[in-house]
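Subgroup meeting minutes
Present: P.N., E.W., G.H.
Scribe: E.W.

1. P.N. recapped why we're keeping a running log of single-chain structure predictions: easier to compare across weeks, and new members can see raw inputs and outputs side by side.
2. G.H. added today's entry (440 aa).
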Amino acid sequence: MKISSIHIDGFGIFHNESIPKLDSGPKLDTGLVLFQGNNESGKSTLLGFIRTILFGFPRANSRDPSYPPLSGGAPGGRIGLIVNNREYIVERKPGKSGGLVTVSGADKDTGQNELLLQLLCGITYEAFKNIYAFSLSELQTIETLKAESVKSVIYGAGTGTAMLALPKAEKQIKDKLDLLFKPGGSNPLINKQTAKLEHIRSELRKASKGISEYDRACDELRQMDGHIKTLGNDLAMSRLNMNKFSSYDHLWPEWLFLQECKTGLAQSPVGQVVEIFPENGLVRMEKELDYHLNYQTRFNQLKEELVQLSKEAKNLAVDKKLVNEADTIAFLSENRNDYIEKCRSLPLKEQEKKTLELEIKGLSGRLGENRPEERLRKIDRSIFALDAIYEHEEKLNRLERDFDTAGKILSDKKDQHEKLVKEEIAAAETIKQSGGAGII
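Output recorded in log:
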């Protein structure tokens, strides 16, 4: 940016003063314009005029001197600026907030404060006053170089970066850090993730309390299994006794009739004459004799079989261990059909076992190389642990989705950052090519 012309309507000792072309001297290639004069000739007043037109009239409580028009005329004036080989006229009159400013260009571009800020490329009043346009009195103290805007400009000049790049970068970094973490906050990403992590730890502590209850339930289950086995043996013995007593119950009426017959025969006298013969007595007697003969024949056969079985029993070798396992043998006999059915389905179960082994092997591979099946079997598979795992899996999926969203946001911010960096580099290059204002 270069100052090309100056016109003062009224400012201090000046009234209706103009310098139409500042670069019309004999040595145009130096880029230097020198104002020479005695004390109180108006050099500081001219410096104050340039500051006022570019940055506004000072406030009433400002430490900067004010220059009322002592020689007449309306306060203010205009300055010609050359930016990027284009000429602009900046005019300022008294008013609120530093005065009313108007910017007009040769190509009919007009504007106010916004356009002026663009032409100044972000230079503040403090930076202009202490770096580009300072007086001898302002050089007497080093405090002028401690303003943040001044330090930023000096830093930018030393590193070749744009004006005010340092505070802007610091603000962007602070804003991004506040989005990630803020002490006592709840909305930043790390605060949210920390709260979720604490909730998960709380759930894990609750789940760990159920381990003792699970162990106690396992002990009760083992005790119940032993009790069920004992009851199964008692049931097998009861069924054997039931079959035996059922046979006794079925033969009981016959045994009673036999006992009555034996008692009647024993009490009947030999050769007793029956005076009253029942009707059809002979026929009934013949039938009873036939029954008796049949029973006698069957009795003799059973007797012979008993003798034969007794002989065979004497020749049999009794296995006392086998006799002691009579209850178990009876139980196995009752469950023989179930065992045969299971043996028939054994090939299908083997095939299912192979399929499950392959599936377990695949799942073990997904869990990692150092996950043998014996180690996996030791993992807590209780209902409480499974519920906790499912809940943690769902939370992990939500966290992954949040992480992906944060990654996309971060990627967008990086793109925006790169774009801004490129714009800053381009702006710095433009400033470098256009040069700076003359030193007064």
